[in-house]
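User: Study the shape:
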Amino acid sequence: MQQSRLDASPDAAGSVTPAGTEEFRVLATCTYFAPGFRAGGPGRSVAHILDTASSAVSAVLVTRDRDLGAASPYPGLSGRWSSRGRARVFYLSPTSPRQWFALWSQLRRTRFDLLYVNSLWAPFSLLPVAAVRWGLLRADRVLVAPRGECSRGALSLRALRKRLFVAGWRRVLRRLDAWFHASTEREAADIRRMFPWATVRVNGNQSALPPEPAPVPPPHDGPLRLVFLGRIAEMKNLGLALAALATVRSPVTMDVCGPIEDAAYWRRCTAQIAALPPTVQVRYVGVVPPSEVPAVLAEHDALVMPTLGENFGHVIAESLAAACPVLCSDRTPWTPVLLVGGCAVVPELTAPAWAAEIERWAERSADERYVARRAAADAYRRWRAGVTDETILDAVRREVAAA
């Protein structure tokens, strides 16, 4: 029987491919999305996937009507549809039953080829997956992108609650024969450790990045200039960088950029900042819009990233593209690139290990830091040349068509 297509009125999810053409219909969800940017990588990855999907993909995205930590919705978008290229985006208020019902009434009229959710346990993933499981939405296949939530670092936070949840939720996903999207083979291994039966598709087309790195800034004399750029939350581990700086003897400055996601964690960080020695200067810059990130990175000698885990790590790619070396933990997929790219990988998540690495960088001459910048730019160039052009949506479409 022919399945209905979504209403094409301005305030509804319209068809995004011409009538009469074969289309791969995708319902995607992501908790935070443009025009917001405070939630970091997942929204940017989804935006890039939608923007670069082929014309054979007809995509509908459901997202929150406000940015991370925002009390007010985006002006003029709450409860409405908006076009983004060939895709349609619905901005949903999570506290409006009327919007939920109106959206469900529209979506249930279409049978989707794919439900693509971007989180393992966010409500914007749980509800649509449950709706498919119990027949309230129709989708032939479910694809879950955990976005790093299966990493050991992520699972170590609120570990008991996550273990209890996964014990029940994995049965739902297995019953649906859900597939998983991993950004790297490293993330694929994390997913299979949690879901041994999982079908995992690895696709690294995750970010709209320039084909070539920016020009290398000229040598800079003076104290080492570090920057931390990310969400202020336990997962990003700013506190470890601050603990390391407390014992560094050389003059160092560090700018902290990013939204405060965890207020209690930030209070602990501010106490650490207040206790730093006078030779170390740390300032909180605030949230940096994506358009300004390259310029911020170019003004610093190195990005500090003692993260507990990343499935991709947009800011690492951005830093290399800005010819800014990275001091990073070994819990990202970037270790091989960084080790040959004028950067540093610190396997131990301890203050002494990080203090020693920062001290080494602080003692470098301006020319030595310049050489590291050039190596970072070269590493980015090599990495960028190997990035696939096919999106995960087109990869799944091709595989389903072949089957």
